[in-house]
Amino acid sequence: TEAVLNEVIDKMRDILKIRANDIPNIELYMDQVTTFMDEKLRYTVRTGESEEKILTKTMINNYAKNDLLPPPYKKKYSREHMMVLIFVYYFKSFLTINDIQILLQPLTDTYFSNESGLGLDEIYDAIFDMGAERMQTLENNLRDSFSWISNSFEEVPQEEAEYLRLFTYICFLSYDIFVKKMLIEQLIDELSEKQKERETEEKKKDKKKKS
């Protein structure tokens, strides 16, 4: 279990290594997009799972249809498209497509191809920089919980104790995920309500102008 923990912590550090400058600053065709994503994110796939591309053509097309991703220009994808796709890739493991769309819409509406102010690349790097700063704290929490649980169930045979410690550690991790997922969903629901209120106000203003 400790070896697995060390392996995952190493992978966590790799998650934060894909910075804006690592993404080609040229427009890419679909095959180039899926190849890039596969090269950079293949290590996140669970051992023994499908060798299918990390993000397939069908998936990316569906993201565009569901407004998670701005449509490509002449079938080509920019660096900003790639950054949005990376966010989508991480979110889709625990959020619904609808939740991701609600979460990303203000980001893409305001900062995608924004030439007069804060750009999407700056936001992307700022988020990953903050994540890197918090990585040591996260690593310490994971190791402290593991060390604490490793001293439990000492009164039972070794084989049973190993399973019970593993089960307990997974329960602790699952509880953490459950609580954080609840918080994320609540925050997205509040964001959705604010977006609806804004849209209602805009419709009222349009009606006044027309009248």
Describe it for me?
This protein is an all-alpha fold. The chain is built from seven helices and no strands. It has helices at residues 2-15, 30-41, 57-65, 79-91, 97-111, 120-150, 158-210. Helix 6 (120-150) runs antiparallel to helix 7 (158-210). The radius of gyration is 21 Å and the shape is globular.
Could you outline the blueprint of secondary structure elements for this entry?
Blueprint (H helix, E strand, L loop, with lengths): L1 H14 L14 H12 L15 H9 L13 H13 L5 H15 L8 H31 L7 H53 L1
Describe, in short, the structure shown.
It contains seven helices and no strands. With 211 residues, it is mainly α.
Q: Report the end-to-end length measured between terminal Cα atoms.
A: 69 Å
Give me the number of helical elements: 7
| Main sheet properties | none
Helix content: 55-70%
Uncertain stretches of 5 or more adjacent residues: none
Order of helices and strands: HHHHHHH
Tell me, what's the shape? Answer: globular
Arithmetic mean of pLDDT: 88
Over the alpha carbons, how many angstroms does the gyration radius reach?
Answer: 21 Å
The count of DSSP E runs of length 2 or more, i.e. the number of strands, is 0
Query: How much of the residues is beta strand, in percent?
Result: under 5%
**Protein structure class:** mainly alpha
